[in-house]
Each structure stands twice: as structure tokens, then as C-alpha cells.
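User: Hey, my collaborator sent me this sequence without any context and asked if I could get a structure. I don't really work with proteins. Can you help?
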Amino acid sequence: MPGLRIHGIIAHDIGVEIVSGVRQPGAVFGGEIEASEALGVSRTAYREAIRILAAKGLVESRPKAGTRVTPRSRWNLLDVDVLAWTFEGEPDTDFIIDLFELRGVIEPAAAAFAARRRSDADLVDLEEGIAAMRLYGLKDSRGQTADQRFHRAILAAARNEPLAALANSVGAAVRWTTTFKQRKHALPRDPLPDHERVHDAIVAGDAKAAHRAMVDLLRLALGDMGLTERE
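Assistant: No problem. I've predicted the 3D structure and written it out in C-alpha cell form, which is a compact way to encode the shape of the chain:
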């Protein structure tokens, strides 16, 4: 974890333990002095790590009651760090399907909006993303970064501020599901043509085709993981 300060490393380690189930909801942490000494860090670093986790909804601290892990329903599951920590282990299959269902609500609509509202600058971003994906492929980290850029560019081109605010979360979901998919097995097919169909529909200004192409892209991506949509 290069670049992380000590409190960030502590937050990462505890966060992974929480999302992986090592620390269950309701589990109580030791006192601040005890916990920091056990980790071999200062109380200030430990306290800051707990603040980070609390901001993500993973823990809560109360006077006299101490710090405890919160119920999963209170976790910010779309926080980029929480997503990363989840995919460091073996995420629950239902959670992966949940992510794709969420993307299925957001991204086809965003693609349709983008087809109607995109600017010349948006088209440049989309083309650069596609070009890098062609050049490097999705097995390469540079191609995966381009894939994230492509999906973020669509949200930006939709010209809808609340949708644009989801760009980091959607980008993280794209990144970690792709990484997880390739960790489990080799890509069964090349998903680049799916992205090209979305790109071409947006360039053509065809909102219906863009919506349909994105629906197909997500359905096929889920299938590449050996998973199917819920009924």
C-alpha cells in the first residue's frame, strides 16, 4: 500500500477484516490505549483510522460504549475504498449481482442521455478510452484504466450532476469486477466490441441504440463471470 500513511494502513487492515467478516457487526473493539498498543501505533494514528472507518459507516464510537462494527445496512458500500476492500477477498456472489443491477439502472440511462447531450470534448474522451482499450486490451492494467475512463466519460456526457457524482463509484465497480473476473479465470471472450457498440451509438446520437447497447454490455459482462441476472 505505497503512499498510505500509518492511519490509512490501519484503516485498510481493519476495513478488510470488517467487510470480509473477520470482525462481525456488533463486535466491540478494545479501548483506544489497548488497541493502539496491540497494533504498535500511536493513539493518534489509531483514532484517525477509526474516524476514517466511521465516515464510511463501518464502525461507530459512543462515549463509554466504545467502538463497534455497525450492521452492514449502514455501510457505504459504494465508497471506493469499501469496494476495494471487499474485492481483496471473495465477495459474495449476491453482492456482485447487486452491483451489476445497480449499474443496469444507472448506465443504460446515462448512455441514452449521453447520446443526446454529448459535447465534442465528451466524444474525444470516449474515443480516447476506446482507443486505449484497443491498444492494450482488458488484460492489461492500462486497458482496464481506459475502461474505467470510458464509463466515467459516459456519466459525464449525460449532463446530469447526480449521475456524474456516481462516476467514482461506477469506475471502482468496473475496475474491481474486471479484476475479480480475471482473477477467477481468463476472459472467455473479447468485450471490446460491446464497448464499441455503445461508443458508436453515442457518436451517432442514437439514444435508444446506446441504451440497448449498454444493457447488452452489462448482461454479457455478468455472464463472463459465470453469473446470471436474477428473475
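In plain terms: The first helix runs from residue 6 to 19. You can pass these C-alpha cells on to your collaborator as they are.
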